[in-house]
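Class prep. Write one:
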Amino acid sequence: MNARTDPSALSALSNRHLDALEEETIFILREVAAAFERPTLLFSGGKDSLVMLKCAEKAFGAGRIPYPLLMIDTGHNFTEVTDFRDFRANELGAELIVRSVEDSMARGTVRLAHPGESRNVHQSVTLLEAIEEFRFDALIGGARRDEEKARAKERIFSHRDSFGQWQPKDQRPELWTLFNHRLQPGEHFRVFPISNWTELDVWQYIEREQIALPSLYYTHKRDIVERKGLLVPVTPLTPPRAGETVEQRDVRFRTVGDVTCTCPVASLAATAADIVLETLSVDVSERGATRMDDKTSDASMEKRKKDGYF
């Protein structure tokens, strides 16, 4: 038996890889705390932000995370996720700030084209309003480079101008883990400590650390309709269209976001270990398999990021 077939050797290799990713993430989280005056950690209650929060707990200790958690709520989030968000923040003794797209709508800064329009893209407005309200100079996010091609262009410390916009051709070099923190008045950074993680890394870490997640991430029965190659969940916000057949299927969510644009995938995976094995065989990116709003050029990730999105 050699290192390629010995389960204990494979486990040791995997743990060394995860240890290196965890160490890098903890270093970046501490770097943000040291370099900025008013940072915040974007926390949705999803798997990536929960992994990041676990690393923050290791970096600083429970009850000692030195920046607040910020959630931009569309008003159409899955209740299982927002409930878990509140539970985890309370468990850690962390300050949780929630700002809502519905508040922006009431102020008139967000206007929907029609009542059924997804609010997901409009989170940019509410986020920029929260940055102005609290004068945040660094926002720590859970985006990963393997999620989508626009996110692959991001630096770990991603500069935003005084309008909150991202210029992909004006990114600062990051050599030997040296980060340029310089800011002009009104500017800020988006910081992505798990940029170098993959979806597989995330699930291996969740399995190893026994990180609790919202139940939506594991197999459950749900009414769906098939639409343009996606399994669209049947909800009051996403009812079936004329001619569509409602089926009950065993599904799970690879990512969780606004109900109006997030789809599950067919799956019987009931544990993190099951999902690790399942993830080894997928050939479609996480967002490509589950997000309706990434299918149109008007809502492309790169355009949205230039407008101030996460």
User: Anything to note?
Assistant: Residues 7-201+298-306 form a domain with the Rossmann fold fold (CATH 3.40.50.620). The first helix runs from residue 7 to 35. The radius of gyration is 19 Å.
